[in-house]
Amino acid sequence: MRLTGLGVSAGIGVGTAVVLRRSTGNLGFGIPTSRVGREIDRLQAAREAAREQIRHIKDRIASNVGAEHAYLFDAQLLMLDDRMLVERAIEIIQQSRVNAETALQRTLDEISALFSRGDDPYLRERRGDVSDVVGRLCGNLRAGGDPLDMFRELEGPLVLVADELTPSVIAQLDWQRLAALVSDEGSWTYHTAILARSLRVPAVAGLRNASVVVPPGALVAVDGTTGEVIVGPDSSTLEEVRGRASKRARFEQSLEEFRRLPAATADGVAIRLEANIESPDDAARAQERGAEGIGLFRSEFLLATGGQAALAEEAQYQAYTRLISSAAPAPVTVRTFDVSETQLPIQHAGVDGSRAPLGLRGIRLSLSVDEIFQAQLRALLRAARHGSLRIMFPFVSSVDELRAAREAMARAAATLRERGIDVPRVPTGVMIEVPSAALTADLLAAEADFFAIGTNDLIQYCLAVDRTDDRVSRLYEPLHPAILRLLRGVARAGRRRGIRVSVCGEMAADPVLLTLLVGLGITEFSMSPTAIPLAKQVLSELNAGDAARVASRALRAPTAADVERELIEFLAPKTGVRGQG
Ligand code: PEP
Ligand code: MG
After folding, report:
1. What is the number of the ligand 1 atom nearest to the C-alpha of 298?
2. Ligand nearest the Cα atom of residue 456
3. What pLDDT does 578 receive?
4. From the CA of 402, how far away is ligand 1's center (Å)?
5. Strand 272-277 to strand 228-231: parallel, antiparallel, or no bridges (unpaired)?
6. 36-64 and 100-117 helices cross at what angle (nearest 10)?
7. Rounded CA separation 186/195 (Å)
8. Residue 223: helix, strand or coil by DSSP?
9. Is 196 helix (H, G, I), strand (E, B) or coil?
10. Is residue 331 within 8 Å of residue 322, measured between CB atoms?
11. Which residue of 93, 188, 275, 294 has the fewest CB atoms within a 10 Å radius of its CB?
């Protein structure tokens, strides 16, 4: 079986499938013969617990509502010992070598198929009861702990197939045994994909129903470049996939020489390449890949992995100190928490987790939960003395918000001074990722120390295309004329005010788009560390003067396709960069 989705983290991985269904909370995986007994024991224990629970419910109903209603639960008790349920699941564990949850799910599927054929009147009547009982058994299996704990016990290499993958799920996994990630949802700039790229784990997103159709324990080959997922490949396919993997390894090897070279265009324009990272521990690795600093530290990942405890000033101070001192003397730009209400690991008055992402998010949320923002700013200002720090605010939509954020920072500095702590001057910048900020870049430039253009969000909000929805990913066009105009305006505003402007969205990591950005006069970029060697190679063959000419032609093109044609025609004879990634 072959599935095709969006390749979101390049590379090839082959391993056995572990299926995580967040919707049911179940993890499905294949097991070695040595584990068969243990899975059967888990299932038997879940059955005994279910028996106790159902008896208890039955007694409660009998004494509170009346014995005539309690008989309903006798049927459920009988089901626990029905050959078609637990006994059948045990058979499946033994024959198919899968864990108890998967066996139960298959048993339920078989029973549902019987219902639909309608040849067993007893079961037809009991259909609701069966899924109730199976749900209870699965709940009891889960009660043994977080399903992800089981992941730790499995032998790699593994391909995690999930309906939904959040950064915090990935953060809990042991990446050494992870060959690839595959998810039903998501697309290119989805934060999980960004994390996968940082960890260099091949990933394919937006597969819709992979978590339903890929059997736990099946061998799966994943090509994160083409978006292909091959389930149960035969030996010749496997050989072909392995051939692709070694070709890719040779290509990466050929970029090695660029890692250490400073980035510059062929005509000598110096370019600054920094890295986007999500964990303080990634700073050193990013520098190894050739980054001159950390251009974007997504601080909210501290919350994804550390929960509520990560909000404490001291915990943050430790994390930022680790980050800043491991990068020093290279500079680090930390973005304050860019989360929406649902991602904030606390309950707070006025914060409503049911609202959409265009509600309280980024700087708006920080400004509305002052004590959280103050703790983050104090932690950052304290850590600043360990190296070179810049702070930037996400999701700014107006000068008012920038002023309010700077005022909050002045208060945090004053509190620290009262505590007798010296606070150095820390440059403050704005993420340009909301169209209103891009359109008023001249006004913001008068009050900010620097800009970092977040093209991931700028594109989604300018074009009204959800960046995580694979069904509209065709409309997510970085080369749309509207985006080019916004980028030109922001670059100009920065130049006129003499403030630094970088691009830290994923656009910068694509060689063709990077050429356009250089042509627009942008010379600072921050990207996933893995993209840096290729960017250096592309830049080394690029003439910035020519890039400026092609950018001005592109700015007159009426459609994204026309813009792309201009760029490809310009690049193809020189470098042949398309299709190498
Ligand atoms: C962006 O929006 O381009 C960006 C860099 O931030 P994030 O991807 O974290 O939203
Ligand atoms: Mg953003």
Report:
1. 9
2. 1
3. 43
4. 18
5. unpaired
6. 60
7. 13
8. strand
9. helix
10. no
11. 188
Rounded to 10 deg, the angle between the 36-64 and 127-142 helix axes is 120
Query: Does ligand 1 come within 6 angstroms of the Cβ of 189?
Result: yes
Segment 80-87 long-range contacts (CB within 8 Å, at least 24 positions apart): 80/47, 80/50, 80/51, 80/54, 80/133, 84/110, 84/111, 84/123, 85/111, 85/130, 85/133, 85/134, 86/43, 86/44, 86/47, 86/137
What is the DSSP-derived secondary structure letter of residue 492? H
Q: How far is residue 451 from each of residues 188, 393, 523, measured CA to CA in Å?
A: 23, 10, 12
Residue 524: CB atoms within 10 A of its CB come to 25
Q: In this structure, what are the phi and psi dihedrals at residue 196, rounded to the nearest 5 degrees? A: -60, -40
Distance, in Å, from the CA atom of 454 to the CA atom of 478, rounded to the nearest integer, reads 12
What is d(CA 9, CA 550) in angstroms, rounded to the nearest whole number? 29
Tens-place pLDDT, residues 4-41: 988 889 899 999 999 988 777 778 889 888 889 999 99
Pocket test for ligand 1, best of 460, 463, 504 (most atoms within 8 A of CB): 504
Predicted pLDDT at 472 = 85
pLDDT at 118 (0 to 100):
64
The closest residue, in CA terms, to atom 9 on ligand 1 is: 298
- Computed from CA positions of residues 21, 22, 23, 24, in that sequence, does the dihedral angle turn out positive or negative? positive
Q: How many other β-carbons are positioned within 10 Å of the β-carbon of residue 7? A: 23
H runs (alpha helix) in 369-480: 370-383, 399-418, 435-439, 441-445, 455-463
Q: Can you tell me whether residue 269 is helix, strand or coil?
A: coil
What b/e string do you get for 221-233 counting C-beta neighbours within 10 Å, with b at 16 or more?
bbbbbebbbbbeb
pLDDT at 389: 98
Q: Please name the helix (run of DSSP H) or strand (run of DSSP E) that holds residue 24, with its range, or none.
A: none
Q: H-type helices in 173-234, by residue range?
A: 191-199, 210-213
Rg over alpha carbons for the chain, rounded to the nearest Å, is 27
Banded model confidence at residue 466, pLDDT cuts 50, 70, 90:
confident
Which pLDDT tens digit goes with each residue over 130-183?
A: 888 888 998 888 876 776 777 777 887 999 999 888 777 777 777 788 999 999
Q: Which residue in the block uniquely carries the two structure tokens 């399903």?
A: 147
Q: Give the nearest ligand 1 atom to 455 CA.
A: 3
Q: Which helix (H) or strand (E) holds 34?
A: none
Give the closest residue to 515 by CA, choosing from 489, 488, 548. Answer: 548
* Ligand 1 nearest atom to the CA of residue 189, by list position: 8
Q: Strands 12-21, 219-223: parallel, antiparallel or unpaired by DSSP?
A: antiparallel
Nearest protein Cα to ligand 1, atom 4: 454
- Residue 137's SS3 state is helix
User: In whole angstroms, what is the distance from residue 539 CA to residue 517 CA?
Assistant: 11
